[in-house]
Amino acid sequence: VNEENRWIKDVLWFFVFVGLLSIVFRLWSGLGATTNLSDAAPWGLWKILNMVAGVALSTGGFTVGFLVYGLKLERFRPLVKPAILIAFLGYGSSVFALTLDIGLPHRIWHPLVMWNEHSFLFEVAWCVMLYFTVTIIELSPTFLERMGLARLAGFLHRIAFGVVVTGIALSSLHHSSLGSLFLVTPQRLHPLWYTSLLPIHFILSAMGAGIMVVVLARILFARWFEHRPIAAGDRTFPMLQSLASIGAAVLTGYLAIRIVDLMASGAWRHLVAGTWESWLYAIELLASAVIPVAFVAIPSTRRSPPALAFASTSAAFGLVLNRLDVGIFGYFSDAKTAYLPSLNEWALSLGVLAAAGLVFFHVVENYAIFDDDWKRRRIARREFMPNFDRASRVWLRALGGELNRASLAAVFAIPVAWVLLYPAASSTDRLTPSPATAPIALDAERAVLRIDGNRGGMATVFPHREHQDRLGRKDSCVHCHHLSLPGDHSTPCSRCHRDMERASFLFRHEAHFSAVAASEGLTGWIRSNHSCGECHEPADARGPDTAKPCLDCHRKDMAPTRDIVAPLGMAHAAGYREAMHGTCRACHQKERDRAERPDLAECATCHQSLRSLSPMTVAARPTEFAVTDILRR
Ligand code: HEC
Ligand code: HEC
Ligand code: HEC
Ligand code: HEC
Ligand code: HEC
Ligand code: HEC
Using a 6 Å cutoff on CB, does residue 481 contact ligand 6? Predict the structure, then answer.
C-alpha cells in the first residue's frame, strides 16, 4: 500500500489486536461467557460469516484455475496467482475462526482420525482441509523461487495441473455440501431460503461471486499499488471485462434457478407477504445477482472500471448476505428470538478478517503475485521515505516503520478491548439464575381454596382445612404435597404443574450451572464453567440418560415423598388436571365405601357447578364431554 493509503494498514492492525484479546478471553472463559450463542441460535457470526461466507468469497481460486488449466483460457493466467492467494487467505482464516468456534479447539484434528461418514460436516471438514493444503501447494512455488529453491519450485510447477484438478473437485464437492448442511432444518429455516436446491444455490453463487471478487482485487491492486486507478484503455482491462462477463453469466444462471425455484415451490407468497424477511430476500437477490448481472450486461457500465468495481462489490456483499440469511437471519422467526453477536464475537470476526488483509498486503508487496514489480516498489518506498528530523529517523530505523506503527495500534487497541470485552463483566446477568419465588405463607391459613388452575371459570371449591384435619393435621400434607421447590414446604401444585393439559419441564439447565457452582463451592474465573462435572461424567456423552439423578442433590431440599426412578422423571410435572384427578379422585374412589358416601367420586362432588344441572342432562351425555361442554358454554 502506498503512503497515502497507509492508514488502511493501521486500521487493520487495530482490529488484529482487538481480535487477539478476544481470542484470549474466548479460550480462557469459554463460548458461553464470550458469545451470545444459545440453543435457539447455535451458529453465529464466526461460523457463518468467517467460515461459510469466507470460503464462498474465496472460490475464485478454483474457478480461475479451472478457466486457465481446464479450459486453457491463457489470457487469465496473470490472475491465477492472485486468485489462489485469495483462496489461501479465505480458507486459512475460515479454518482459524472455526477452530475457535468449536467447543474444544484442541480437538479440531478429531475428524482426521474419528470418522463419521454419515455427517455432511465430516465431508466439509475433509474437503476444506484438503483444499487448504492444495492452495498451499499451488502458492508455494512463488515463495520457493524467492528463497532460491528453484528446483523444488520447478517440481511443484510440473505437478500443478494435477493439483489444480484435485482442488477443483474438492472445491465443488464441499461448496455444495455446505449448502446441504442446512437441508436438515426444514421446520426451522424460513421457507424463502429453505429449498432442496440449496446445494446448487450455494455452489453457483460462490462460483459467480468468487470470480467477481478476483476482478475487484485486481482493480483495488491498481488503485493501491500502481498509484493510479485502472483506466478503460489499460492493457489489463479487457481481461477483467471478460472475466466479469463469465462471473455474470454464472450469476445469471443462479438468478434464473432461484426465481424458478421460488415460483415452483410456492415460496414466492412469502416474498410478497411484506415481512422483514421478504425485504431482506429482495435486497439479497438484488445485490447478489441482479445488480452485478445488469452492470456487466449494459455496455456503458461494463466499459467503466468504477462501475465494474461496484458490480463486484455488490456481488460479494450479496453473497455474504445470502450466507447470513441462510445461516442466521432465516432462523429468527422460528426461534422467536433474534441473535445479536456479542462484542467479543464481532472483535474476533473482524480481527481474523483484518489479519487476512494484512497477510494479503504483505505477500503482495514482497512476492511476485500480481506482477514482478515488488522489488522496484520496495526500493521506491525507501527513496520516498519521509525525511523527518533525526530522532524520528532513529525510531524508524530501530523499530522499522511497520512494527512502529503496529505497536502504536496495539497501545490504542488493547486497553479499549480489555474494558469492552472482559467477559466476566459483560455476562454476569446471564449466569446468575433468577431465584425461585418465595412461598406466600399467609395462604396456608385459608380454610377453603377455590381451585381454578387455568382461570377457565370451572372452579372447584376445595375444603383444604377439612382435608388436613381429616388426614391428621400436621402429618396430612404429604398425602397431596409430594414435592416442593428447593428450600420450600408444601409448594402450591400450580408452581410445578403449570399447564392444564400438558406436562411442564421443570429443569433449567443453564440456571443450574451457577447454582451448582455456588452450592458446591467451585472456584475458577468463570465458576459455572466447572459445574458440568458435578452432573456429567467426563467419559459419558452428555444428555438426559447419563446426567446425575435429580434426587441425589434435591432429596434434602425438595422434600420428596417418594423416590423417582426415571432419570428425568422429576423434570416433567404432569398436566394440572392429571395432577388434581390423580390426587383427589384416586382418594375419593378409595374412600367412598368407608365414608359411606357413594357420590364421593362423582364429578359433581368436586365440580359443584354441575349440581345445578338436572341429572337428566348430565346422564344424557358421556360425562367427560358433558363437563367440557359446560365449560365451553
Ligand atoms: C375429587 C375431586 C374431583 C372429582 C371427583 C372430579 N374432578 Fe375434575 N377436577 C378436579 C379439580 C380440583 C380440577 C382442577 C380445576 C381447575 O383448576 O379448574 C379438575 C379439573 C377438571 C377439568 C378441567 C377443568 C378446566 O378448567 O379445564 C375437567 C374437564 C374435569 N375436571 C372433568 C371431570 C369429570 C368429567 C369428572 C367426573 C368423571 C371429574 N372431573 C371428577 C377435581 C375433581
Ligand atoms: C388433600 C390434599 C391436600 C392436603 C392433605 C394438603 N394440601 Fe395444601 N394444597 C392442596 C391443593 C390441591 C392446593 C392448591 C394448590 C395449587 O393449585 O397450586 C394446596 C395449596 C396449599 C398451599 C398454597 C395455598 C395457595 O393459596 O396457593 C399451601 C401453603 C398448602 N397447601 C399447605 C398445606 C399444608 C401445610 C398441609 C398439611 C398441613 C397441606 N397443605 C395439606 C392439597 C392438599
Ligand atoms: C416441586 C414441583 C411439584 C410440586 C410443587 C407438585 N408436584 Fe406433583 N409432580 C411433580 C413432578 C416432577 C411429578 C412427576 C414425577 C413423579 O411422578 O413424582 C409430579 C407428579 C404428580 C402426580 C402424578 C401424575 C401422574 O403422572 O400420574 C400427581 C397426582 C401430582 N404430581 C399431584 C400434585 C399435587 C396435588 C400437588 C400439590 C398439592 C403437586 N403435585 C405439587 C412436581 C411437583
Ligand atoms: C445440575 C446438573 C447439571 C449440570 C450442572 C450440568 N448439566 Fe448438562 N444436563 C443435565 C441434565 C439433567 C440434562 C438432560 C436434560 C436437558 O437436556 O436439559 C443435561 C443435558 C446436557 C446436554 C445435552 C442436551 C443439551 O441441552 O444440549 C449437554 C450438551 C450438557 N448437558 C452439557 C452441560 C455442560 C457443558 C455443563 C456445564 C456448563 C452442564 N451440562 C452442566 C444436568 C446438568
Ligand atoms: C448437582 C446437584 C443438582 C442436581 C443433580 C440437580 N439440581 Fe436442581 N438445583 C441444584 C441447586 C444447587 C439449586 C439451587 C437451589 C436453591 O436455589 O436453593 C437447584 C435448583 C433447582 C430448582 C429451583 C430453581 C429453578 O430452576 O426454578 C429446580 C426446580 C430444580 N433444581 C430441579 C432439578 C431437577 C428437575 C433436576 C434433575 C433433572 C435437578 N434439579 C438436578 C442442584 C442440583
Ligand atoms: C386422602 C384422601 C383424599 C384426598 C387426596 C382428597 N380428598 Fe376430598 N375428601 C376425602 C374425604 C374422606 C372426604 C369426606 C367425606 C365425608 O364427608 O366424610 C372428602 C370430602 C371432599 C369434599 C366435600 C364433599 C362434600 O360434598 O361433602 C370436597 C369438595 C373434596 N373432598 C374435594 C377434594 C379435592 C378437590 C381434592 C383434591 C385437591 C380432594 N378432595 C382430595 C378424601 C380425600
Answer: no
| Residue 458 Cα to ligand 1 middle (Å) | 8
Cα(436) to centroid(ligand 3), Å: 17
Whether 597 lines ligand 6, by a CB cut-off of 6 Å, is yes
Which ligand is closest in space to the CA of residue 499? 1
Tens of pLDDT, residues 271-291: 888 899 999 999 999 999 999
Q: Residue of the nearest CA to atom 35 in ligand 1?
A: 624
Return d(Cα 566, Cα 547) in angstroms, integer: 11
The protein residue whose alpha carbon is closest to atom 10 in ligand 6 is 588
At 322, the pLDDT band (50, 70, 90 cuts) reads very high
Taking a C-beta distance cutoff of 8 angstroms, is the pair 262, 268 a contact? yes
- Average pLDDT on 342-359 reads 93
pLDDT tens sequence across 202-227: 999 999 999 999 999 999 888 887 77
> What burial letters (b/e) apply to 286-298, b meaning 16+ CB within 10 Å?
ebbbbbbbebbee
CA–CA gap between residue 486 and residue 500 (Å, rounded)? 23
Nine cell digits for residue 622: 358421556
Note the ligand closest to the C-alpha atom of 496: 3
Judge residue 354's burial from the number of C-beta atoms within 10 Å of its C-beta, 0-12 exposed, 13-18 middle, 19 or more buried.
buried
Residue-wise pLDDT tens digits, 382-439? 444 444 445 555 555 545 567 777 787 788 888 888 777 777 555 444 444 444 444 4
302 near 308, Cβ under 8 Å? yes
Output the pLDDT for position 432: 45
* Ligand 6 geometric centre to CA of 591 (Å): 9
* Ligand nearest the Cα atom of residue 30: 4
Contacts of 80 (CB under 8 A, 6+ apart): 64, 65, 68
User: What is the per-residue pLDDT for 210?
Assistant: 94
Q: Is the CB of 543 under 6 A from ligand 4?
A: yes
**Around Cβ 50, how many Cβ atoms within 10 Å?**
26
483 lines ligand 3 (CB under 6 A): yes
Q: Which residue, among 339, 335, 325, has the nearest Cα to 276 in the 3D structure?
A: 325
For residue 439, give the amino acid letter: P
Q: What sign does the dihedral 565-567-572-574 (CA atoms) show?
A: negative
Calculate how far, in angstroms, residue 574's C-alpha sits from the geometric centre of ligand 2.
Answer: 17
Identify the residue whose cell numbers are 374412589. 589
Specify the higher pLDDT residue, 208 or 453: 208
